[in-house]
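Workshop exercise sheet. Pairs work together: one partner reads the sequence aloud, the other fills in the structure field after running the prediction. Swap roles for the next sheet.
Pair: D.N. / O.F.
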Amino acid sequence: MAAEIGRTYQPLDRDAPFYVAGHRGLVGSAIWRNLAGAGFSNLVGRSSAELDLKIRDDVFAFFAETKPRYVVLAAAKVGGILANNTYPVDFLSDNLRIQVNVLDAAREFCVERLLFLGSSCIYPKFAEQPIREDALLTGHLEQTNDAYAIAKIAGIMHVQSVRRQYGLSWISAMPTNLYGPGDNFSPEGSHVLPALIRRYDEARRSGSPSVTNWGTGTPRREFLHVDDMAEACLHLLENYDGASQVNVGTGSDVTIRELASTVASAVGYEGSIEWDTSKPDGTPRKLLDVSLLANAGWRSKIGLREGIRGTVDWYRANVESVRG
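Structure field:
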């Protein structure tokens, strides 16, 4: 049985082995950068080619070899609405196996502090806005990504169960829509903000007189820069120890129409912006209540305009090798 871990808040040991699962992804790479900048000298990461987290025996062998004291589980099979809706079995099966293997191995080897990362899609489609943590499991999920959401909900319950049964100080965090360096900019698999960046930058370079977006542009969405998310993760690991998952966001949102205008300005596109209102809008609003995070002493710092400009710069510098 795992040793009982003290619940006092204190800085993590910068020299202890710290495993970042998914360290090459959008979130994981930002967490790695943040931890390195904060002085962690023993970061551990494996690419999916080096370690397939779906293979249980390999995961346990990895934990036996590296013996991490801290873990952030940022590895996941992710995708946009089309991918989630088309391959629900893959998103459910792959993510459940990744989570169960990593969390079971972390428990077996008595990982002291672990942060499990989920997604705001865990909340009901028509949850009261802004969405509080206690909205979990109070209504129906958005059908297009319900399989992925169920996997993430299972991860939250796994962490809470480990806390109850083994007394380990593990926590979960649920970020809002993330963006930034390392994002997926593919036309088929990207989320709305990187898709807009690619669309408008290509329109600028081709001299297209107009760009047409789906829907009315009226839905409201919240966006958090991935570097802010990474900073919040370390803050929570050092300042929060509760059973509830913690929402991580900015506490403010914008319309998709406002977002498109901001992106067009950031890339220097001067053509007209059109809207195909025959296409669906999706959920009218999705904003997280970040009171619990604020009470833990953290607020976002990177403004949306600033963050989008930086992401556009990164995209242009890496356009030949960027995902997508």
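Discussion prompt: The first helix runs from residue 26 to 37. What would you look at next?
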